[in-house]
Structures are given as C-alpha cells and as structure tokens.
Design goal:
With about 375 residues, this protein is mostly beta strands. It is about 5% helix and about 35% strand.
C-alpha cells in the first residue's frame, strides 16, 4: 500500500467514529488516491459538495489556496501539529464565509497561513448586506479574523484556537469584529490563546467587540503590557488571563479606543504595567462605566513556562504550578484561563481536528489479495 493511500485510510478511519454525513477528501499530494469523492483542489470540492457535507483536508507540504464557503460545510484538518504519518499540516491560505449561504459551517483542525492580511473573513467582498449565522471555529491555528461591513453575524463561536501571528500593516486588531448596534449577536469567544497584531514594527490590539459578546477563559498575551482591546464595550469579560497585556483599550493620535459598560469578573493580569496599569476593570472611556469583581491584579499566574510576545511559541507550557491562583478561581469554580470554563483547552500543544491513530499493528508479511487484521489505538483531540 502506498504511503498516501495509507494516510488517507487512517484519516478516514479516525474520523468515521464521529461523522455520518457524505464525506469528501481533498488531497494535493503527489500520487494521491483517486475516487468519486477525492479531489486535489479545495474550491472545486466545495463547489461540488452539498449542504451539510464534510470535507477532510489531507496534510500537504503547501497550502490549499484561498476559498469561498458558500454553503453549510464542515471542513476538517489534522491540526497545527505536523501529522504523525506524513509530517505535514492541513493548511489553507485564506477563507471567506458567504453571508447566509454558509450558515451552520464549521472549521476544525486547520492551519490558516496568510499573515499579511486577515486569513478569515466573515462576509464576501462587495456582496449585498446579509447575516451569517451559526458558525463555529475550533482546534485551529489562525493569525486573525475580520468581519466585513456587509455581514452582521449571529451565534458565532470561537473556541480552543491559537489566534496569533497577524502582521497586516493596517493596525487593526487580531480579532476585528464590528461594534455597531446589531452587527454582532451572541458572539462567544472562549478558551483561546489570542495574540496581538504586529503592524509596521509596532504592536496593535487583540480584539474589538461589543453587543454583549461573551469573552471567557482566554489567554491574551502580548509584549510590554500592551493593550488587549481596541474598542470594547457592553461585553462580559470573565475568567481571562492578560499576560504581557492589559485590559485597557489602544489609542493612537486622535483615535481613542472605547472601553466602557463592560463587566470584568475573575480575570487575572500580569506583566502589564509598561503601557498602563494592570487594573481590572480598566479606566472607563465613557459611561456607563466598567464594573467587576473578583479580579486578580498584577498577579503571577504561575504557568510552568510562558514568555510574552506577539507570536505564539511552541516552547510555552501553560501547565499550572501547584499553587497557581488560576486553579478553581473562575466565576464557575473552574480554572481562570484556558483550562477552565465550558471548553477546557488541554490540547493546545497538540492541537488536532480529529482523533488520530497513535499506534497501529499489522502483520509483518502481507501477501497480494490477502485479508489482514488491523489493530489501531486512536487518541482523542482533547
């Protein structure tokens, strides 16, 4: 059996326990298997697939280009750690979600590679005004996400992602959501590692949001205590860690970042004094003022190893030391930070979209046309 055929078999085997919809495979590797549902071009596969279908992205040495998702699809990759079998990742350069048509879609286990502009856009460029609903992105490595002006969003969940490495040159935040009335509804940002945008040699903010967005159990990290937020108001900000970052909003020139009417509860700040105080809640820029309680100000979270920066380092270890103040310190009695809350992010060092084959046993000698017994041990993605 050829290596690519074996990789495809293992990939489908490891995911078959999770999904029952029609499944397509995209594989651009040399000598990739062929079949009715196997394609080398991702956009071609998207165009052929129907609402509700699953597309598995086989790891490759290069990315699968830029695509438009215009129906409900569930796109699954191997994760941001190189695949055990091939040593490669499931990489896509950039993705646009078409408003309304892409409702209900999910991204899982993908690596988005564009860094000089946003690799994920909610809304298609120059399309009519329409709403995007019920999208979930998880177990992905993404430099940043931008919501277009023509795309109100509703019921969007970002969880268990590493969102870092953006270098746009535009000065916008890593997660750039619109703050106008009605532009976001039930936006949930939970259990992610979120870094700053690094623009033209200077650090920029990590997030803009409003409209009662729930921001829970994330790690915001940056350099020199830079601001985590650009514009942030009418949000619930709970159980987050601000490391090398602070909870105030970024202002430059005549532009003043908004930070008011938020509820800050049981967050922790550390190493954040160079660009302003570590205080949580931060000073309000308008009324109603920020409120909150249970916050730990300028307190070492006692991670095993964490170095501040705008690019996430694989050498960081977020394991909590024995006396960490994060342990069971959240509003819900679970940990503050990524290991607590609804979606504990315990696999951040081994981020994968699907269960993977950890160990497989086959006979040492296989004759042509011989049936074999395959024994495999599959590990989950958490």
């Amino acid at each position: 059996m050829k290596p690519n055929q074996l990789l495809l078999l293992l990939f489908l085997f490891s995911t078959s326990i999770l999904f029952s919809q029609t499944t397509y495979v995209v594989d651009q590797n040399e000598n990739a298997p062929t079949g009715d549902h196997v394609y080398s071009d991702l956009q071609t596969c998207i165009d052929i697939a129907a609402d509700g279908d699953i597309i598995h992205i086989i790891p490759a040495n290069s990315n699968y280009g830029s695509v438009l998702i215009n129906k409900e699809l569930h796109i699954v990759g191997s994760g941001w750690i190189p695949d055990n079998q091939s040593g490669m990742k499931s990489m896509i350069y950039s993705i646009q979600f078409k408003s309304n048509d892409a409702d209900g879609s999910t991204l899982n286990g993908l690596v988005l590679t564009q860094t000089n502009d946003y690799p994920v856009f909610f809304g298609e460029l120059n399309a009519p005004l329409d709403t995007l609903r019920d999208v979930e992105i998880f177990n992905c490595k993404i430099p940043g996400i931008k919501q277009r002006d023509n795309c109100p969003i509703k019921n969007i969940t970002l969880r268990n992602n590493v969102i870092a490495g953006l270098n746009t040159g535009l000065g916008y935040p890593t997660l750039n959501f619109l703050t106008g009335a009605g532009m976001t509804d039930n936006l949930f940002i939970s259990n992610n590692i979120i870094g700053s945008n690094y623009s033209l040699g200077t650090i920029k903010a990590s997030l803009s949001a409003a409209n009662q967005t729930l921001i829970a159990n994330n790690l915001f990290y940056s350099l020199n205590g830079f601001h985590a937020f650009h514009d942030i108001f009418n949000c619930f900000i709970v159980n987050n860690v601000f490391f090398g970052s602070n909870a105030s909003s970024f202002s430059y020139g005549a532009t003043v970042g908004a930070n008011y009417a938020n509820v800050y509860s049981n967050n922790l700040s550390y190493d954040c004094a160079s660009y302003g105080a570590c205080n949580i809640p931060p000073v309000s820029t308008s009324v109603p003022v920020n409120i909150g309680s249970g916050n730990l100000v300028n307190t070492d979270p006692l991670y095993e190893t964490l170095i501040d920066g705008w690019v996430w380092s694989g050498t960081n270890s977020l394991d909590l030391l024995e006396y960490s103040p994060l342990i069971n310190g959240g509003t819900d009695g679970t940990d503050i930070g990524i290991t607590g809350g609804l979606y504990p992010f315990n696999n951040y060092e081994n981020l994968r979209g699907v269960p993977y084959v950890h160990q497989m046993a086959v006979p040492g000698l296989i004759m042509e046309n011989q049936d074999i017994q395959l024994e495999a041990e599959v590990r989950s993605n958490q």
